[in-house]
Amino acid sequence: MLDVQIREVTDNRPRLDAAPDCLHELFEARADAAPAATAIIRDDKSWSYAEIEAHANRLAHHLRALGVRSGKLVGLAFERSELPIVAILACLKAGAAYVPIDPGHPDERIRYIAEEAELELLLSEQSLFARLQRAFPGTIVLLDVDAAAIAAQPPTRISRIETGLKPDDLCYVIYTSGTTGRPKGVMTEHRNAVHFVLAFNEFCLTTARDRIYQGFSLGFDGSVEEIWMAFSIGAALVVGT
C-alpha cells in the first residue's frame, strides 16, 4: 500500500531526464499546465501562476530595454514580499543571473559585492532607495515607482533564441561571508540548479497541493530550495513577513 501511495505522488513529477534545461522554465511549465493555480501567497493576498508569469514577463522585457543581456549580473535588494520573487523570475527570463543583496548589510559590504560582481543595475523598491543610493553607484530600478512603465511592456514570454541563454550559463551568484571576512560569490549554473531542485523534490515528496514557506533570506541558498521546490511542482509559495 505504501508503494502505491508514493507512486501516485511522484508519477506527475518532471523526470530528471525530461526536465527543462533552465531554472525559470520550471516555472513556465507549471504556468502553462495550471495557470489558475496559486503561485504566491503573502498575508491575505495571492497570485496565480498566470499572473506571476505575466508580471515577470513584463519586467523581463523592461530589463531587456535597459540593456540586460545574457551573461549580465543584476542585483536584487528588497524587503520581504512577492516583488523579489517576480524580480528573480524576470532576471532569468531576460537571460541574466541575479545577485541577492541584503539591504540591512553595511554600506561597505553592499559596495564590495556590487563592485566585485560588476553590477550595473540593481532592482529594488522606493522604501530602500535612500539607503541603497549611498552604497550602490549604478542604476537603481524601483519596481513600485516604475510600475506603470513595466505594466506597459508585453506579457509575452522571451524565448531562449532571443536571449541566447544556455543551460551552463549562471542563474545566480550568492555571496557568503567567507573565512577571511570578505564576501565570496558562489556561482551556480541553470543546469545544476534544475537537477538539484528536482532531486530535492523526489526526496521531500512535494506535490502541487502543498504550500511551501519561503522564510530564508534570498542571500542564503536555502531560499533556492524553498522557491523552486514550490514552483517546479506547481505548489504555492508562502512568503513570510
Describe the protein's architecture and organization.
The protein is an alpha/beta fold. The protein has helices spanning 2-10, 23-33, 49-65, 83-93, 107-116, 129-133, 147-151, 160-163, 190-204, 222-231, and strands spanning 38-42, 45-48, 73-76, 97-100, 121-124, 139-142, 170-176, 184-189, 211-214, 236-239. The strands form three sheets. Strands 2-1-10-9 form a four-stranded mixed β-sheet. A four-stranded parallel β-sheet has the order 4-3-5-6. Strands 7-8 form a two-stranded antiparallel ribbon. Strand 1 (38-42) and strand 2 form a beta hairpin. Helix 9 (190-204) packs across helix 10 (222-231). The longest helix is centred in the N-terminal third of the chain and has 17 residues, at 49-65.
Largest sheet: 4 strands, mixed
What level of helicity do the residues show?
40-55%
Q: What is the structural class?
A: alpha/beta
From the N-terminal CA to the C-terminal CA, the straight-line distance is 40 Å
DSSP summary, beta strand count: 10
User: pLDDT below 50 for ≥5 consecutive residues: which ranges?
Assistant: 1-11
**Order of H and E elements:** HHEEHEHEHEHEHHEEHEHE
